[in-house]
Design a protein that fits this description.
Elements: H1 2-8, H2 15-71, E1 78-81, E2 85-92, H3 104-121, H4 128-150, E3 160-166, H5 174-192
Antiparallel strand pairs: 1-2, 2-3
């Protein structure tokens, strides 16, 4: 190649134009390098947010249930806002808000599957709102799954501790609240067309 160029010759390029071309090439290379370098840390930060939110939701749920079991179970309910809201310890073998008590094992498997899906999805996560939403789902699912595995009457059949009892509504816990809030946020993000990878699409 070099020998061919020596024989054929190369067109004369003014020094100023040659310098400008060199600078353009350097700028393009620098921009591409910056985009490639910042993409990975940005994704890692979103994953960190997901697991931080999940850890916070899980810890809050776990601590609240420990307090309820130790201080409130087998005791009279505590009225928080008259008879409109009270704390009452309930063991729930069903799904969130007390539904489907005959399918405890199935709900346990579903919760475990949700956790696996969220962890796999985290690898492609570049959206902060999605990180928060999935973190709430993950923390809530882990909270109730912990009860399913470790509480009586047995492994994968354990009853979840519920204690938040609004008037004329089902009794629930903080894990249920985290799951519902995460689900609502995901619906809102989907309506806005925001995907987990940070891209926005319009139907």
């Amino acid at each position: 190649m070099a020998e061919a160029e020596r024989i054929i010759g190369t067109p004369d390029i003014p020094d100023a134009d040659r310098d400008e071309q060199d600078r353009d090439g350097q700028r393009r290379a620098g921009t591409e390098g910056t985009a490639a370098d910042t993409g990975r840390p940005r994704g890692k930060r979103r994953i960190a947010v997901l697991f931080a939110v999940a850890a916070f939701a899980y810890a809050l749920d776990l601590i609240s249930k420990m307090i309820v079991v130790a201080k409130l179970e087998h005791h009279e309910p505590i009225e928080i806002v008259g008879d409109w809201l009270r704390f009452e310890a309930i063991r729930n073998a069903g799904a969130a808000f007390g539904f489907g008590e005959a399918f405890t094992v199935i709900f346990t498997v579903i919760a475990a599957a949700v956790i696996v899906v969220i962890i796999r999805l985290a690898r492609k996560l570049y959206s902060l709102p999605w990180a928060i939403a999935l973190g709430l789902l993950l923390g809530g699912a882990l909270g109730n799954l912990t009860d399913r595995i470790f509480r009586s009457p047995g492994v994968f059949e354990g009853a979840v501790v519920d204690f938040i009892a609004p008037k004329h509504f089902a009794v629930f816990n903080l894990a249920d609240s985290a799951i519902v809030c995460g689900g609502i946020l995901i619906v809102l993000l989907s309506f806005r067309g925001l995907d987990p990878d940070g891209t926005v699409h319009k139907d």
